[in-house]
Write a structure and sequence with these properties.
12 strands; twelve-stranded mixed beta sheet
């Protein structure tokens, strides 16, 4: 399958990195407390308490919720993270909700972005569910608490 967990001897908070190797394909939901590096392909939902990195040959299609996401390869779907970095050669197609967004020159973003106050990623049900609430508050230009979010609409950005 190509899943490897490399532990850290320094006793840091996150035990290691799970790797989805090139040529591997994972279909379904994945929940992790550690880092994830994707050189293969994932179709489904990924939740990590740490970092998710998509390598140059990697691709994720679905929903990703993590503290920090770095995209060097391809992504299509919804992202909910504290920080998203799309590096040169990386491509994100979909909707994102982040506190920090970095798009390097040579990177590509096509979708809707919501920049919110710095906080941990929201719970799965809040981030990817309740479309009615999101639409209702989008009409008002506020978040569900009445303010605090900046909203930008459909964008195509090439760095």
């Amino acid at each position: 399958m190509g899943i490897i967990n490399r532990g850290r001897p320094d006793g840091s908070q996150h035990a290691g990195t799970t790797v989805i190797a090139a040529g591997s394909r994972l279909v379904g939901d994945l929940a992790l407390s550690d880092n994830l590096h994707v050189d293969g392909r994932i179709e489904g939902t990924v939740r990590s308490e740490a970092e998710v990195a998509i390598g140059q040959e990697g691709h994720i299609e679905g929903d990703v919720q993590a503290d920090h996401i770095v995209v060097s390869g391809g992504f299509a779907g919804n992202i909910d993270a504290r920080r998203l970095e799309i590096v040169s050669g990386g491509r994100v197609d979909g909707d994102i909700s982040v506190a920090e967004l970095v798009i390097e020159p040579g990177a590509f973003f096509n979708g809707n972005s919501r920049i919110r106050d710095a906080e941990a990623p929201r719970q799965q049900t809040q981030a990817f569910g309740s479309a009615e609430k999101t639409a209702k508050h989008a009409e008002k230009g506020t978040d569900e608490k009445g303010g605090g979010e900046k909203r930008t609409d459909k964008k195509s950005v090439a760095g």
